[in-house]
Amino acid sequence: MTRVARILERVLGVPAGATPLPAPLDMLIATILSQNTNDKNSHRAYTTLRERFPTWEGVAGAPMRSIRSAIRTGGMANQKSGRIQHTLEKIRSRYGAYDLSPLADLSDDEVFEVLLDIDGVGVKTASCVLLFSLGREVFPVDTHIHRICGRLGLASGCRTPEQTFAAVKELIPKGRAYTLHTNMIRFGRRICRAVHPACGECPLFADCVYPEKRRERSIRTNASPADHDFMLLDNVR
Asked: Which of 85, 118, 133 is the last residue of a domain?
């Protein structure tokens, strides 16, 4: 995995993280809104929600229809509006406020325990809070990363992102969780796509064990990071 991280950094660059880090609750809600949609739509949904309800207390006490209306662009508004209000109530019940800052004093395993106790919050969502908000060396695995790790033989036999998360977490080079996660998503969107991957442009072609890979044309060595990637952190800056 160190080799993969090094090659992707050479081709895609070293992404800069947000400064300051977003609040854990902001990141949690943004990640819930990102489920089953693209980043552009989830960004719009989060932005509209915060414009209409500047505080999480306001979101918690709002009529469900108002939340559905605010987040409609993110898709699955019926499910996500209920999930958001349930999440906020769970947090208020546990900490006495709509605030997840106490997570900063917990270990990674303890943070997972708290967040996974909330209905609708899975391993990837909890991992995003740990990485993007708490600055921990945790490596979230989404569908792109799950696919790439399988094609590179790093998670052989893993059928779900959760299985891949468990399989590769000890392989992540120290200090590179954020960079590797971000670059793998970029790589999965542009080159190692689910359908019609651009194998001829792949800097990891020699490492790939994907049986359907094809060398279509020579590797581009002058690739640069996209200027318009919608990353999760964009939602909460």
From this structure: 133
The pLDDT tens digits of the residues spanning 190-206 come to 999 999 999 999 999 99
Catalytic one of 40, 80, 90, 124: 124
pLDDT, tens digit, for every residue of 106-121?
A: 999 999 999 999 998 9
Classify residue 19: in a domain, yes or no.
no
Number of structural domains in the chain: 2
Number of residues that make up the chain = 237
Residue 94: other Cβ atoms inside 10 A? 13
Q: Is 124 a catalytic residue?
A: yes
Output the domain CATH number for residue 29. Answer: 1.10.340.30
Indicate if 95 and 9 belong to the same structural domain. Answer: no
